[in-house]
Write a structure and sequence with these properties.
Elements: H1 2-33, H2 80-91, H3 94-103, H4 105-117, H5 125-132, H6 152-157, H7 173-191, H8 194-203, H9 205-215, H10 220-223, H11 229-246, H12 256-272, H13 282-286, E1 288-293, H14 299-306, H15 310-316, H16 320-325, E2 330-335, H17 336-358
Antiparallel strand pairs: 1-2
Helix pairs in contact: 2-11, 4-7, 4-17, 5-11, 7-8, 8-9, 8-11, 14-17
Length: about 375
Amino acid sequence: MQGKFFSVRGFLLARFARYLLGTIILLIASFTIMSFTIDGTGKGGRKTSDKDSASAKGFRTLFNGGNYDPDKPYLFQLNPKAVAFVEGYIAREKDDLEKMREWGKPYFNIYNKVLAQNGLPTELKYLSVIESNLSSTLRSHAGAVGPWQLMPDEAKRYGLKMGKGSKDERTDFYKSTVAASKLLNELYDEFGDWLLVVAAYNGGVGGVKRAIKKAGSSNFWDLQYFLREETRNHVKKFIAVHYVLEGGGGWTCLTAEETALQKANIDAMMVSSSTAAPILTDAEMSTTTTVSLSGKYNAGVIIKTLSLNDKDFNRLNPGFEKMISEGKTYQLRLPNDKMSLFQEKKQLILQQSVQLLLSPQPPVDVAKGNA
């Protein structure tokens, strides 16, 4: 019995070592080539040509191993029409992005909380990165101010103060994020497509609508050249920052068409794993949000850390343990008020999950206190 225990533990340690080695190699390759600097394109900064390309070979390994397959649902692959720009942009912007990972944490924590409370993907925080480099005092020549580069009419519409004798609330990280969230929700109601939302945030609703009409398509990759160069590059910069800081793609990097294919693929994976996804109510859909997750996460650790009900978690996330154990990416669904806490505790949850995998101790009892 003891010999069997040590052989099983040795097997798990070997698997973890291979996983850890692969992760380290990927991180080393990633940090060797990626970089970031602010160019102030939120409301009128310098332009970057679509012809920019990477100087480092092999960068495509960051994007789903370079195996883009147009015949399969996207699996969060980088669209090939964005590869050259994204490669070049990241390769030029290494130092500042690496620094932002640390000094930007307090601002990202605010963004995660407010965006989740407003039913928005927390990854939209990267729009503020390309708008202002997280600068509260940045002012564009067009009059946009603050970390979200809000124009005066937008600030007035969402109740922000700007008058003489009072602080310009567009410079307040919390209040400006609340206002930006309202604007982002309005844009999504208009277009139903996150890439078009980012484009309209930079170039205006009218500019995007004209591009749709001229292209005869609402697919960003078809209409992009009917937009101003600054606007189409703004979208690609958003995608680039998302890929680096998230370690991969996600819902906000997809067009509406790609999103439909991705969701269909996830549904198919659920069926193939013999775990049919439940039909969620409108209330459940409106009060929850998703995040792409991969790694050795343990459902029990997530439930305990976030003080969730295990039955509710399993209803929202059928087949979680199976897909995660198979090394697949899972769309973790959590209540809106828990998503920001998950983002804050994400690394701690992963560490505890790995420790649990390697520990001979009994698994975490998630039933106590969560009934």
